[in-house]
């Protein structure tokens, strides 16, 4: 499996950046996980949007779905031009309902509510979805192709039960929304770089990729706060960062 960062910033993209979006490739299959602002223009470096096999939206906050609505246009157009014969399968929660009802679009999208589809397969990749601690329903994604496992934490607060989702994943992609200097007095629904590292160590992750970063953070600053708490291999996300596992 190959995991590529298409966007990693939040809550808005910095210059030339993008909010969360990741391309998961396994064999001939391509899965887009989250589709934030700026993600589609990054995706086009790797494949055409109509070549995707599936999309997973972890939750319906705009930093994770903004470009999904133009992806709908791309798929509809591809169908009209005969470049794609089937709708694009999208796994996403249906709430908040005011956004959930926008997930389908003409004949472009086959929406499968995560609430009813907690496990699925795309080619040889088994995907399972697990609730995190976040103000709206949000789902972490465990991708397993039988040789390696990637746990994508989506947006998650300190009460998230990572141990229930996976032990010793080959890669843990975890949010690091806060640094020590800006952790709010009562943080809710997000983690600091240090908390992400502690969580990764606790579940025995082999590699940790820190993401969901404020555009003004310097990568060295993020790494410095996480490093003392994690004994595996540590990475900080950037556009185009890519890692290949078995
Ligand atoms: Zn977010």
The name of the CATH topology is Metallo-beta-lactamase, Chain A
The main β sheet shows up as:
7 strands, mixed
Number of strands: 14
Rg from Cα: 17 Å
Could you report the average pLDDT, rounded to the nearest whole number?
Answer: 97
Structure characteristics:
single chain, alpha/beta, Metallo-beta-lactamase, Chain A, binds zinc ion
Explain this structure.
The protein is α/β, with parallel strands linked by helices. The protein is 20% helix and 28% strand. It has a single domain (2-244), classed as Metallo-beta-lactamase, Chain A, CATH 3.60.15.10. It has helices at residues 39-43, 62-65, 68-80, 97-100, 162-165, 193-202, 219-226, and strands at 2-7, 21-26, 29-35, 54-56, 88-92, 109-113, 119-122, 125-131, 139-144, 149-152, 171-175, 207-211, 233-236, 242-244. The strands form two sheets. Strands 6-5-4-3-2-1-14 form a seven-stranded mixed sheet. The protein has a seven-stranded mixed sheet with strand order 7-8-9-10-11-12-13, covered by helices on one side. Helix 5 (162-165) links the parallel strand 10 (149-152) and strand 11. Helix 6 crosses helix 7 (219-226). The model has no long low-confidence stretch (mean pLDDT 97). Bound molecules: zinc ion (ZN). Residues 10, 61, 63-64, 155, 212 line the site of zinc ion (ZN). InterPro entries: Metallo-B-lactamas, RibonucZ/Hydroxyglut_hydro. Pfam families: Lactamase_B_2 (PF12706).
